[in-house]
Amino acid sequence: MCVGIYPSMALSDNFRLPYFTKSQTAEKLGLYNIPREVSEVANLKALCERVLEPFEARLKGRVRIVSGFRTQTLNRLMGGPRDSQHLLGEAADFIVEGMPAYTAVFTLAAQSDIPFDRLRLAHRACRDGSTKSYIHVSHRRMDDNGGLVETVFQTGEGRRTLKGIHSVEAENSATAS
């Protein structure tokens, strides 16, 4: 049996490979952002089947991937760490349509039967003064999953990581005092 990687292949019932490879940065620069290794696709399938599908079912809302698989070049251009799980097909950043990221991640963190490695609520400050929030989740298909829950605040001045789930309002009041 021949196993191949097809740009439009299904990874699970509700997720397809293009959801994880679409990137405005890659498109703008003409970069190829498709997994080259069968293990990367297997990792994406495990992430979908074991984590994202159960998340979507529990939240009763559509999980929309905003960043998934990344080649090394794309990851570097996006400012990702060298050891990013996105490079291996083990991670995805997403939002849940119709639900604030804080509410979704709080619900997901309570799911002890879903094997995530990291579940991160990320708040990114925008140039216009607003904040965009999304959820990062990772899953290791061939290793133990740590179940780490954290919040990351990203601003023009840097990045701050805290254990647990923290809202933007709580961070603003903590830094103001």
Helical fraction equals 25-40%
- CATH topology value: Muramoyl-pentapeptide Carboxypeptidase, domain 2
Number of strands: 6
Order of helices and strands: HHHEHEHEEEEH
> In the CATH classification, which architecture applies?
2-Layer Sandwich
Mean pLDDT: 89
Q: How many strands, which pairing sense, and closed or not: the largest β-sheet?
A: 6 strands, mixed
Shape: globular
**Tally of discrete structural domains:** 1
CATH class: Alpha Beta
DSSP summary: helix tally? 6
Largest sheet strand order: 1-2-4-3-5-6
**Cα end-to-end separation:** 63 Å
Q: What is the rounded Rg?
A: 16 Å
Q: What fraction of the residues are assigned to beta strands by DSSP?
A: 15-25%
- SS content category: alpha+beta
Can you tell me the residue ranges where pLDDT is under 50 for at least 5 consecutive residues? none
